[in-house]
């Protein structure tokens, strides 16, 4: 069914980064690192056993073989690094391995070989990367189309479609090429390209872009472009280009090696020159072998990856975690990222003499038979409020108009109003409210008479505000929204979240341009969940996919995948990345400072190569133990809740859903006080509001005050953390008491005095505002803590 949409919502499909980072992946076959580790460990162990048994020559042979085995792949890694334009950390290891073989310090060479193999194996584990091809994008692309020639309709390959061909697009099919509607009006799901979740109706002659889905009945399409010139093919090309332009990842170890390498070689050469002993030079290179770089950084990064995975965050490789830890700019899609990605009922307006609950139940009774996304939202809202739909007969649905059925012997419709229907004043007021709130309206009529209006909107995620605050704490200095949605709803969300900027009505190409511009200023993260975000995800330094409900394509595109449907997991991942990178840097720098001290001792002859290698082992152990701190939970990142507190959060969150009709009743009663001549109806509404407040709302607030808040205080740092919410409870109780007092004054006369109307109306509107704000604050600050 189709509903009027003054301010539509967004939805994404999937996206994908196509080109893997060549520098991020280990050089050589995937089995090389584990084989190298096994051989070097075995040779070192066998040599040690033979030395203990008195077979020194055999022990030296084992160690020499292990050293030689490590030299070969190390040379390959160095050559690959040089081809990419930089001398990596492995060059020092190659010099040290070669030096130990040249001067006969085979034990030292075997120790270095083991450390090199261990570091490469850890780094390979840290660089687990899934395929970044375009399979999911291409899977969405239709391979054939139905071309109409006269009265004959025949399937043909999409590549054969020419401009001017008349095509038939069936229900549920993907539009194969750009074109214009040539037959009946088309109802389209354009979320693949624009993110709009609400279907859009295109009249004959209007343009339709390829890649969108036919959400209504079959229609004719006149092709205006070939397959290669159509919109969806452009998205695929943009994803390829952006991925190809991604800069190679430079390992953390290699960045430090840029100055450590020449320093080590200079000290070794100076020691040889002054002493005339090549052994001293080899000893310097042995203690200079950057095992703290080869081991500490990968251990810290792998520990960070492990911590993130426990929270439902999959990080593709260590390079992505490093970049996330250095990020300073965050770009966010709106729908499915900052919002839930699915419309929800936010308000129900009833005609005079009707109740909102009755309107919602009627709408759900008809819509329970519809597959439309808004129909599902209406049915879900009715059931959440305990309103079970009844039976409807003769149900039908007309694309672009709505659903129809007989309910209790009366024709009931949900969708658009018929053009001939006279719109009453209350309906015009509801329409204006929907426009101001950025909501979609589903009108409910009974026997052609408007009965009520159901307003739907894709709401802000409860966890989004806290997540963005935590991201700023983690070092993100600039947060900008990039969306294909209209400016009005985008700006509203940006204002609520305190974003630094918002850009609306963007095409995929516009998003790529925005990402590139931000990348020129700082390390940039892009978060999205749809096909239309694919090029932007590929162009960003770190692409993040909301993978819980996103498509396979978006999951395969991103460097980071949030497998749970919570945006605050990105804040968790960023905090982990910052901490892991900080520990990696601490470990690397600390290890290098110790190595520099050992290099000085070796240069003056105080450390022979074998002793230097053993000392280097001690340094390695120290920095690895420090790097393993990245596995520990950072208690400051997220409050730790007791199971009982989590259960209470879930309980009161469900009660918030149940109490939405109470909030609606409060506002409706306030509105009825403005209706001249409706004093009797107004008094009845106030009585009902007083009953709801007394029986449902105030007990809920009392239970929160005496059960939920005390349970949260240990995790939040004490009673001060909930003090402002307690003050809101007091204000709610005060306003409810004032409503009850007005009702007590009116009961003896059976009517409200004129002097009461203004104050009572202010009380009700004030109570509604305080309740909405209070509920939102609790949902953002408290309810978002529970998984």
TrEMBL record:
Q: Where is the P-type ATPase A domain?
A: 140-239
What family is this?
Answer: Belongs to the cation transport ATPase (P-type) (TC 3.A.3) family. Type IB subfamily.
The family database entries (NCBIfam families) matched by this protein are listed as: ATPase-IB_hvy, ATPase_P-type
* Keyword terms, alphabetized: ATP-binding, Cell membrane, Membrane, Metal-binding, Nucleotide-binding, Transmembrane, Transmembrane helix
Name the CDD domains on file. Hr-like
Which Pfam families did the record assign?
Answer: E1-E2_ATPase, Hemerythrin, Hydrolase
PROSITE patterns assigned? ATPASE_E1_E2 (PS00154)
Bilayer disposition of the protein = Multi-pass membrane protein
Per its UniProt record, what InterPro entries does this chain match?
A: ATPase_P-typ_cyto_dom_N, ATPase_P-typ_P_site, ATPase_P-typ_TM_dom_sf, ATPase_P-typ_transduc_dom_A_sf, ATPase_P-type_domA, Cation_Transport_ATPase_IB, HAD-like_sf, HAD_sf
Organism of derivation: Streptomyces atrovirens
Name under which the protein is recorded: Heavy metal translocating P-type ATPase
Its main subcellular localisation, reduced to a broad class, is membrane
Q: Where is the Hemerythrin-like domain?
A: 648-785
Keyword S-adenosyl-L-methionine attributed: no
Query: Where is the protein situated, by its record's location annotation?
Result: Cell membrane
TM stretches of this protein: 35-54, 61-80, 92-119, 256-275, 281-302, 588-607
Taxonomic lineage: Bacteria, Bacillati, Actinomycetota, Actinomycetes, Kitasatosporales
**Keyword Transport tagged:** no
What ranges does the record give for the region Disordered, renumbered to this chain?
1-24
């Amino acid at each position: 069914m189709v509903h009027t949409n003054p301010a539509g919502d967004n939805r994404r499909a999937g996206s994908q980064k196509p080109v893997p980072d060549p520098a991020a992946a280990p050089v050589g076959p995937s089995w090389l690192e584990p084989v190298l580790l096994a051989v070097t460990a075995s040779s070192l162990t066998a040599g040690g056993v033979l030395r203990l048994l008195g077979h020194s020559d055999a022990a030296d042979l084992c160690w020499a073989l292990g050293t030689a085995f490590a030299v070969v792949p190390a040379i390959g890694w160095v050559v690959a690094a040089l081809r990419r334009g930089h001398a990596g950390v492995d060059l020092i290891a190659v010099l040290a391995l070669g030096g130990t073989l040249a001067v006969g310090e085979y034990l030292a060479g075997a120790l270095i070989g083991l450390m090199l193999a261990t570091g490469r194996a850890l780094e390979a584990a840290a660089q687990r990367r899934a395929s970044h091809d375009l399979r999911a994008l291409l899977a969405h692309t239709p391979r054939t189309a139905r071309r109409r020639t006269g009265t004959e309709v025949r399937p043909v390959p999409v590549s054969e479609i020419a401009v001017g061909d008349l095509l038939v697009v069936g229900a549920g099919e993907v539009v194969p090429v750009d074109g214009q509607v040539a037959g009946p009006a088309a109802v389209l799901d354009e979320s693949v390209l624009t993110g709009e979740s609400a279907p859009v109706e295109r009249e004959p002659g209007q343009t339709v872009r390829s890649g969108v889905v036919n959400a209504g009945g079959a229609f004719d399409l006149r092709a205006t472009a070939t397959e290669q010139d159509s919109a969806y093919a452009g998205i695929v090309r943009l994803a390829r280009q952006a991925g190809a332009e991604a800069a190679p990842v430079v390992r953390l170890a290699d960045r430090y090696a840029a100055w450590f390498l020449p320093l080590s070689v200079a000290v070794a050469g100076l020691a040889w020159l002054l002493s005339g002993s090549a052994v001293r030079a080899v000893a310097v290179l042995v203690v200079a072998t950057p095992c703290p770089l080869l081991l500490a950084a990968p251990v810290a990064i792998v520990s960070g990856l492990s911590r993130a995975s426990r929270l439902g965050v999959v990080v593709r490789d260590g390079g992505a975690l490093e970049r996330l830890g250095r990020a300073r700019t965050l770009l966010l899609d709106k729908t499915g990222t900052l919002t839930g990605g699915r419309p929800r009922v936010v308000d129900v307006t009833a005609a005079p003499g009707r109740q909102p609950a009755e309107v919602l139940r009627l709408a759900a009774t008809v819509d329970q038979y519809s597959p439309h996304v808004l129909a599902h939202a209406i049915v879900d809202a009715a059931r959440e409020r305990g309103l079970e739909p009844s039976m409807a007969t003769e149900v039908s649905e007309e694309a672009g108009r709505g659903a129809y059925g007989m309910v209790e012997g009366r024709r009931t419709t949900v969708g658009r109003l018929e053009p001939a229907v006279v719109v009453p004043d209350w309906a015009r007021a509801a329409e204006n409210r929907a426009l101001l709130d950025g909501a979609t309206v589903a009108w409910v009529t009974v026997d052609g008479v408007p009965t009520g209006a159901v307003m739907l909107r894709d709401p802000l995620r409860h966890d989004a505000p806290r997540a963005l605050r935590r991201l700023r704490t983690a070092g993100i200095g600039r947060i900008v929204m990039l969306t294909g949605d209209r400016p009005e709803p985008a700006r509203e969300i940006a204002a609520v979240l305190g974003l630094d900027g918002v850009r609306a009505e963007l095409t995929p190409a516009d998003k790529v341009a925005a990402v590139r511009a931000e990348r020129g200023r700082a390390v940039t993260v892009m978060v999205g969940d749809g096909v239309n975000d694919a090029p932007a995800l590929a162009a960003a330094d770190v692409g993040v996919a909301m993978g819980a409900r996103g498509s396979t394509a978006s999951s395969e595109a991103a460097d980071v995948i949030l497998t749970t449907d919570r945006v605050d997991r990105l804040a968790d991942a960023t905090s982990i990345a910052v901490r892991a990178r900080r520990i990696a840097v601490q470990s690397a720098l600390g290890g290098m400072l110790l190595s520099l001290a050992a290099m000085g001792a070796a240069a003056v002859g105080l450390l022979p190569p074998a002793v230097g290698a053993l000392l280097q082992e001690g340094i390695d152990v120290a920095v690895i133990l420090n790097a393993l701190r990245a596995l520990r939970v950072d208690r400051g990142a997220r409050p730790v809740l007791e199971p009982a507190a989590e259960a209470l959060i879930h309980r009161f969150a469900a009660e918030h859903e149940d109490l939405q009709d109470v909030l609606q009743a409060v506002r409706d009663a306030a509105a009825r006080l403005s209706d001249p001549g409706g004093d009797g109806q107004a008094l009845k509404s106030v009585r009902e509001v007083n009953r709801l407040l007394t029986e449902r709302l105030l007990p809920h607030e009392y239970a929160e005050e005496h059960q939920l808040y005390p349970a949260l205080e240990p995790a939040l740092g004490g009673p001060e953390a909930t003090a402002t919410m307690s003050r809101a409870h007091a204000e709610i109780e005060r306003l409810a008491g004032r409503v009850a007092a007005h009702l007590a004054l009116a009961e003896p006369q059976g009517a409200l005095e004129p002097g009461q109307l203004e104050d009572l109306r202010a009380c009700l509107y004030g109570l509604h505002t305080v309740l909405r704000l209070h509920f939102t604050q609790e949902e953002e600050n408290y309810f978002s803590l529970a998984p």
